[in-house]
Amino acid sequence: MGVMWLQFIAILLFLPHQSREQEINFTLPEQLALFLDRIGDVHRLQAISIVNSRDSISPDYLDGLHQQLRANASMHFQLLPQMTATDVDVHVCFSALQDEDTLYVVFARHSRDPVIQLQAKRARGRRYSKTLFLLKEHESLPVLGEFFKLLWQLQFRSALVVTAQRWAYQMDPYPKMKIKRMKEVSSYDLEEIFPKPNRKNFNGYELHLAVQLDIPNSFWSRDPRNQQLRLDGAGGKIINELMAKLNVTLKVHPLLVNGSRWLNMPAIIDLIASNRMELSPHLCDTLQASTEVDYSYPVRLASRCFMIPLDNQISRTLYVLLPFQWSVWLSVLLILLVLHFFGVRWLVPDSQLWALIGVPGWRLSRSHHHSVLNTVTCYLVLFGVCLIYQLYSTKLTSFLTVTLSHKLPSSLDEILRLPFPILALPLDVELIVGTFGHAEEFRRMFSVTDAQTFATRRINMDTGYIYPISSFRWFFYSVQQRYLKTKRFYFSSLCHGTFAAQFQLRIDSHFKDPLHRFALHVQEAGLLLVWMKESYQSARLGGYIQEFTSAEEFLDDIRPLAFNLLAPAFSLFMCGLLVSLVVFLVEIRPPSCARRSSRNSSSH
Ligand SMILES: *[C@@H]1O[C@H](CO)[C@@H](O)[C@H](O)[C@H]1NC(C)=O
Ligand SMILES: *[C@@H]1O[C@H](CO)[C@@H](O)[C@H](O)[C@H]1NC(C)=O
Ligand SMILES: *[C@@H]1O[C@H](CO)[C@@H](O)[C@H](O)[C@H]1NC(C)=O
Ligand SMILES: *[C@@H]1O[C@H](CO)[C@@H](O)[C@H](O)[C@H]1NC(C)=O
């Protein structure tokens, strides 16, 4: 019992003394060196990078620090190679030199020191690494608040700030940014002294999303439960699900740029680069990558092709000629001429072939005899003529029951000969000409327009233009015309590129890694296609797309009674009338002429 009391008193006496002794301040370079050494040891860091701005630290202190870091053989960073960079303008990123297990030490004069921005630029791709900011002066709490907000915007996720060489601060940004003063740094577990760079639970952190229309990837709809705006679309669903998983609260705001609701990628990039938006929910084909933002991994790959108005129906008046090819028509004509001039006129003038076939003007005479050969040849020819006639009439009747169309233009030359202009955005023009060449011909065809006109015309399937479109989007848009008998558009087989559909994020965004992992799962599970099909319904309910079922198309469905079928029948009837009239006129030619011809034939 006595021993225990003694121990207790000893502990009481010993504790404050010990903690005061362990409290760290960095007034001496040895103290900082020792602290860095322990951090390096605990976190098994491979490299250290020390950055300072002018006047933020005395040269003696810096010398001392370097010496201390290398002097002692037991020091963790002792054996590292040393490199000194002085030029501010060198555009080398740390990620090219060091791996991610690096400790960054930044000496700055105050919280607005440009070295912070410089560090952010240089540490692109390494901002989740442990970073220690040492501010020379002590800063008031509101100023520190601003500073941490900047650090959060610059995506330093694992930052520790020490002011005036002794006050240490950390931030806890979830769900509202909080600054944590760390009393007695050394009594903190060194494992936890830097915040964890990747959090799985954002505790309801509010993320403001500016959304523009990009059917089917992103649009907004009303939640039927609470009438709130919610993000929708194939890409929107990915963001919704990911954020639900991360426990992030989404605030959706429709964004108008120059009065247009439709996706304006330069404006979005600008918003992100100027730190006004953290993440863009637009899953969009990256046609021109910007270095001012980061992109997610490609969620899908698609090539861009053309959506071409379907205008290849053959006029019904031409159907009469279509059953035979031109070569067949020519040979038939040739054979008939040969038959007439060689066979009937010259070789066997009394064969009565035309009379047998029923050609008007030729009369069958009964009162004479033929050779057997003559008769057989005559009937063979007759048989051939009947055969051809049967073929013709069968084909013609079968053609009249369907709608015939030309072969679809698919090659570049054929498309360039089409009478439609290509409606496109300036960037599309560049890409298409860059891929296919033929700059002159294309330039004649292009009709360059703004995002809104382009998007609305394309989604309404406005015939009269050819539109560039990705295969994924076509898959969605073409569902609109599924009930049409004669479709409005077809998808060209002429395509270019494979373009990656990606989200745009702030550089080194907090959401980048979770998004990468999540997109991978989504892709593996094939959810993207499922979500796209689901969003078709909500896009239709939201009035963004429509299904074409016009009255004309309904008439087409009940074909036998349709008027447009009567027209060819009527024209055929008129044609028949005309032919009978001609025959009739030939039949009632002057009797003298007929008599002469019959006398001629009977005299032989
Ligand atoms: C810093 O720590 C050293 C030793 O731990 C101590 O002697 C010194 O007084 C401290 N300085 C301040 C300003 O607390
Ligand atoms: C080297 O550092 C250790 C602590 O890491 C310390 O105990 C030792 O005294 C130092 N030796 C020298 C020569 O500074
Ligand atoms: C999400 O965040 C809220 C707000 O902090 C919290 O109450 C809730 O427990 C969190 N949900 C999960 C699943 O962690
Ligand atoms: C808005 O319109 C103006 C004038 O047409 C143009 O200069 C500006 O670039 C447009 N802004 C965006 C973000 O497109």
TrEMBL record:
Q: Gene of origin?
A: Ir62a
Q: Which domain of life is it from?
A: Eukaryota
Q: Which PANTHER family would you find in this protein's record? A: IONOTROPIC RECEPTOR 20A-RELATED
Topology of this chain in the membrane: Multi-pass membrane protein
| Originating species | Drosophila pseudoobscura pseudoobscura (Fruit fly)
- Might you report a single GO cellular component term? plasma membrane
For this entry, the protein name equals Uncharacterized protein Ir62a
Q: Give the range the annotation lists for the signal sequence.
A: 1-21
Q: Where in the cell is it found?
A: Cell membrane
Q: Which UniProt keywords apply?
A: Cell membrane, Glycoprotein, Membrane, Receptor, Signal, Transmembrane, Transmembrane helix
Spell out where the chain crosses the membrane: 326-348, 372-392, 565-586
